[in-house]
């Protein structure tokens, strides 16, 4: 079974500062994907960034980067130069991709990020 | 390209009733997954459909069911509603996989917020 742990229920960060959201995972599978989603108060889950277990480089997407440490089973999200619009819930998720056709995502409990002007 | 569309956005039902939620995936996407989000249990996988067939199922009672049509639109049904079924129900679609280790990002709709009184 897969498990995602997010240990920070809430974080407050000053605007324009960088922020790191923690995520650790547990799986016995060798092939898996790690995702980060953002959920504003409107409810929609917005895809941010993806890291595959075999990817050698850390993923980056604009202001988002993923600090992937496979041996420690961690996949922390780094947001550079935070903006007021970054205030939202952030979820880390995992999908085992060794089973072709498996679309099930396992989510963590989320971190509520609040950006302070 | 239009995103994932879920209807209705809000629903109020009473215990014992049944409800049907609808999801229209992104054009070209054939996989549709459903998730339940509650404050107590977080985000939990309900089931996933691909080409009108249920491919994966989460750990939910048989009162929760779904189906997919030939145009990939999906519906989920909850019969004999209970107070604990109050939740945000999220639908996600993903494109056809480009390989066995494809990252297959799931794109979510805005959800249907169901309140059971």
Verbal overview:
The complex is a heterodimer of chains A (117) and B (117). By secondary structure, chain A is mostly beta strands. Chain A has no helices and twelve strands. With 117 residues, chain B is mainly β. Chain B is built from no helices and eleven strands. Chain B has strands at 5-7, 10-13, 19-24, 31-38, 42-50, 53-57, 64-68, 74-78, 87-94, 107-108, 112-116. In chain B, strands 2, 4, 5, 6, 9, 10 and 11 form a seven-stranded mixed beta sheet that branches. In chain B, strands 1-3-8-7 form a four-stranded antiparallel beta sheet, with no helix packed on it. Chain A binds chain B through residues 31, 33, 35, 37, 42-47, 50, 52, 54, 91, 93, 95, 97, 100-110, and chain B through 31, 33, 35, 42-43, 45, 48, 50, 55-56, 58, 88, 90, 92, 94, 97, 100-111, 113.
Number of strands of chain B: 11
> Level of helix content of chain A?
under 10%
- Tally the helices of chain A: what do you get? 0
Radius of gyration of chain A: 14 Å
Strand content of chain B: over 45%
The average pLDDT of chain A is 93
Strand proportion of chain A: over 45%
Q: What's the β-strand tally of chain A?
A: 12
Task: Assign an overall shape of chain A.
Answer: globular
For the termini of chain B, the CA-CA separation is 37 Å
Major beta sheet summary of chain A: 6 strands, mixed
Contiguous uncertain segments of 5+ residues of chain A: none
The most extensive contact between chains is:
A-B, 28 and 29 residues
Class based on secondary structure composition and strand pairing of chain B: mainly beta
- Individual helix count of chain B: 0
Return the structural class of chain A.
mainly beta
* Subunit arrangement of the protein: heterodimer
- How confident overall, as mean pLDDT of chain B? 93
Q: What pattern of helices and strands is seen along the backbone of chain B?
A: EEEEEEEEEEE
The N- to C-terminal Cα distance of chain A equals 41 Å
């Amino acid at each position: 079974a897969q498990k995602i742990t997010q240990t920070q229920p809430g974080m407050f960060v000053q605007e324009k500062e960088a922020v790191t959201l923690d995520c650790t995972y547990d799986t016995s599978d060798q092939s898996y994907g790690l995702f980060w989603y953002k959920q504003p108060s409107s409810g929609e889950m917005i895809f941010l960034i993806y890291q595959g277990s075999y990817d050698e480089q850390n993923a980056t997407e604009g202001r988002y980067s993923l600090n992937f440490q496979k041996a420690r089973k961690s996949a922390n999200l780094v947001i550079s130069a935070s903006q007021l619009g970054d205030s939202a819930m952030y979820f880390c998720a995992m999908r085992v991709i060794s089973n072709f056709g498996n679309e099930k995502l396992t989510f963590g409990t989320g971190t509520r990020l609040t950006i302070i002007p | 390209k239009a995103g994932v569309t879920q209807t209705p956005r809000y629903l109020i039902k009473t215990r014992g009733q049944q409800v049907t939620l609808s999801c229209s995936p992104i054009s070209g996407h054939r996989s549709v997954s459903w998730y339940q989000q509650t404050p107590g249990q977080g985000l939990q996988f309900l089931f996933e459909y691909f080409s009108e067939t249920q491919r994966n199922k989460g750990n939910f009672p048989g009162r929760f069911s779904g189906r997919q049509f030939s145009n990939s639109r999906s519906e989920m049904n909850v019969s004999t509603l209970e107070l604990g079924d109050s939740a945000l129900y999220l639908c996600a679609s993903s494109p056809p996989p480009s390989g066995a280790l494809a990252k297959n990002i799931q794109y979510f709709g805005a959800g249907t917020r169901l309140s059971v009184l």
